[in-house]
Every structure is written in C-alpha cells, then in structure tokens.
Amino acid sequence: MVSFKQALQTLEQKGKLERIKNKTSLSKVPDLIRNAEKALLFENTETEYQVASNICTRDNFCTIFSMDWKQIQEKVIEALDNPIKPVTVDESPFEEAELDLRKLPILKYYASDPGPYITSGVFVTECEERNLSYHRILVKTKNTGTARICHRHTWQCYTKNDRNIDVAICIGMDPALLFAGAISTKEPMDETEIAGGFYGEPIRMAEMENGISVPVDSEIVLLGKLTSEEGEEGPFVDITGTYDLVRQQPVVKVTKILRQKKNPVYYALIPGRGEHSFLMGFGKLPLIYKELRKVCSIKDLAFTDGGINWLGCSVSIKKRSDKEPKKVIETALEAHKSLKHIFVFDDDINLSDPEDVLWALTTRFQADKDLYTYPDSLGSSLDPSSEPGEDRRKTCKAGFDCTIPLSKDRKDFEKVL
C-alpha cells in the first residue's frame, strides 16, 4: 500500500516532484500550481501544514503504482469484481488541531471564487453501506461551509436520514483511495473495498468518536455533520473551465479537526482540468470498460482530448458486425450518464494520437449514415451548452461510427504511410 506521504516520496525519487522550500504565501500557490509541470510540495506556507498538489495525473499514477496505464485500468476492473473488506485497527495516528478551518491552508483558486474552497475532501458516510465520495466545500466560517452534494449515494444517505448525518471528511489519502473515492458504481459499494481489491489486502481503518471509520493514513480528517440548513454555493470553476451553477446547498458543521501527528500535508486539488478532470474520468473509465467488454471485442478506451475526461470518449474495437458500433455507443452512454459524444474506431487507430483519431473521423465517417443522435437526453450539468431544466441537464447526445464497413475493402481505408 502507498500512503499519501509515500506517494510524494516516490514521485520525488523519480524526479517528478519539486520541493518549494522558500516561504510561500497561500495567495501565490494557485498560480504556481497551474504553471507547474511536476508535482509540488510547499514546505513553508506560513501555516502548520505543508501543501501538496499535482499528484493525481496519469503519469504520476503509473509512477506511484509501478504499472503502465493499461495495467492500472485492468487492476481496477479486477478490484471491482474482487473487493476486499477493510479492517479496523486499534491505533490513533491523529492529534486534535484547533477547531478553526481558517488555520488550514485552504485556497482561493480563482479571483472569482466567493471564498476558499476545500476541493480534495473525500466524504465518508455510513448508512447501509460505507461510501467515499468527493464533495467540494465553500468555507464560510471557522467551522462551517456549504458542500456541493450531487444526487448520488451521499445525497441518498442524507435525504433518508432527515437531512442530518454524521460525516468524516478526509484530505490527503492513499492514492488508491483517492481514485476509489471518485468511482460511482451503479449499486452502493464501499470504496475502501475497491482500494483493498486493488492492493490485494485490506485497507486499515480507525473508528472516530462519531462512529465513522476513516483510513488511518489520512493526513487531515474533519469530523462533523451535514445539516438540513442550506447556504449559497458557487460560482465555482468546474472541469469544463467554465462556471458551474450557483446553488443552495447543505451546510457542513465541523466539530473537530484531526491531523497526522508528524508533518501533516494538505492536499490542494486545483479545480478546472488537470487533476480534477483526471480523477473524475479515472473513476468512470473502468466502469465503461467493464460494460463494453460484454458487448464487443474492445482494444482500447480513452476520454477524448477536449472532452475534459467527462463529456466525450473514444473506443477502438475489433469489429465483428456493422451493428456493433451502435451497441457500443449505447452501452457507453448507459455506463456513464454524463457522456455526450462517443466515437467508435477500428482497432488500427491509436486513441492516444489526436491526429490519428481525427484522420479516422475524416476518412471513415459519413454523417448521413454513421451518426446516431439521442435528443432530449439527461446529460451533465457541467455542459454549458445543455438546455435549461432540472440542474441544467437536457442535451442531445451523439455517437460516431468511425469504423470501416465490413462490406467494403479494408485496404481502401488503411494508411499506406
């Protein structure tokens, strides 16, 4: 297993992390993160905490786990099929900090932000099933903030319990837990079991005073309640790089702040592209892949460039029937409800090469025959072109069959050079 600090050490050893030793004002950190090519660790933030960022990228995950990208995806799919329950241990790695969120190095990432945002907080709830999921928090006072809660598992737990539940919010965790927390399975599933399945051994948990158990390697833990009180949340720069809606959202009341006893590190996850979109997409790719392999001979799957790891994906297949691409398109749309565009290619197209992808779209696609549209579909609230409605979700989805018709001579479509 790999703790958050161990991940930082591995990245540094491989030349992928830069330590910033000089005193750095928190107001300067976001711009430094945006312009950095490596992971960063700010050692002197004029607070009691170090700040780390740019950790969760495709290249960094391959380095941290010593696997290539395909191996990681296959390992996650295996973990979904073979989860391992966590174990509770009798150890207390945490110390209590002053109950004041303003003492944490919580950043205001953009000038337009209405206040400092916790963007890397993974909520742990325990209803019928333990759930880990990301929910951003706009900090309002020393112990309150408004949390953007999408209508999935945390919301279901919250509404079933009179909109008042205990929560633990973990900041800075084992990278396997960071990606597991981003996975939204159809049925409720304990994401600590997915991380355990990924490693082949159970995640170690410590029970908190409010009855919720958290991973013992968490750098910072906020204990509190998600209350029935509401407050304004937003505007927020989301993965599209555009503003999400301003909403009335539940107020989180923090009752205790815990941290690792030695050199606690705050994880600053900058919103809008980068780590943000990578983690969101990482949580969906294995779920799409798992469903697609039931209906086709899949070679590769990737989110499209410009699709910000959320709204568009490309699939390459070894086609067995001309009806297969449509099935692939509809299966992908069902597996990831926020998908807007799906491109299906033959297995000779390199999905990691944008030029190859665009070449195949240009030479193997005819809009009057190969375009499938799905108007009035529920899509993503993050898409600014979607139509007004409940949470701004009405859209027209589309699938592009960019494969060679089996009735035609394949040689006519293949590159000579």
Set down the secondary structure blueprint.
Blueprint: H1 4-13, E1 17-20, H2 29-34, E2 39-42, E3 50-53, H3 58-65, H4 69-81, E4 87-88, E5 94-97, E6 117-118, E7 122-126, E8 130-134, E9 137-139, E10 144-147, H5 153-160, E11 165-171, H6 175-180, H7 191-199, E12 204-207, E13 213-215, E14 220-233, E15 247-260, E16 265-267, H8 274-282, H9 285-292, E17 298-303, E18 312-317, H10 324-335, E19 341-346, H11 354-364, H12 367-370, E20 371-378, E21 394-402
Parallel strand pairs: 1-2, 3-16, 4-12, 18-19, 19-21
Antiparallel strand pairs: 2-3, 5-15, 6-9, 7-8, 7-11, 9-10, 10-15, 11-14, 12-13, 14-15, 17-18, 20-21
Structure keywords:
417 residues; alpha+beta; Pnp Oxidase, Chain A; 2 domains; nine-stranded antiparallel sheet; five-stranded mixed sheet; 25% helix; 28% strand
Overview of this protein structure:
The protein is built from 12 helices and 21 strands. The strands form 4 sheets. Strands 5, 6, 7, 8, 9, 10, 11, 14 and 15 form a 9-stranded antiparallel beta sheet that branches. A 5-stranded mixed beta sheet has the order 17-18-19-21-20, sandwiched between helices. Strands 1-2-3-16 form a 4-stranded mixed beta sheet, with helices on one face. It is of the alpha+beta class and 417 residues long. It has 2 domains: 4-280, Pnp Oxidase, Chain A, CATH 2.30.110; 284-413, UbiD C-terminal domain-like (3-Layer(aba) Sandwich). It is 25% helix and 28% strand. The protein is globular.
